[in-house]
Amino acid sequence: MQALNRVNSTKFRIFAIYMPKKIYILGSAFPFRGGLSAFNERLAKQFQDEGHEVKILTFSLQYPKLLFPGKTQYSSGEAPKNLTIKRCVNSINPLNWLKIGRCICKENPDLLIIKYWIPFMAPCFGTIARLAKRNKHTKIVSIVDNMVPHEKHFYDTPLSKYFVKPIDAFIAMSQSVKSDIQKFSQKPCVLSPHPMFDNFGAAISRDKALQNMNLSNDFRYLLYFGFIRHYKGLDLLLEAFADERLKKIPVKLIVSGEFYEDSKPYLDLIEKHNLHDRIILKTDFVPDNEVANYFCVADLIALPYRDATQSGVTQIAYHFTKPMLVTNVGGLAELVPDGKSGYVVTPNPQAIADALVDFFETKNPEFFTETLNEQRKRFQWNTMTKILMTL
Question: How far apart are CA 181 and CA 187, in angstroms?
Answer without folding.
Answer: 9
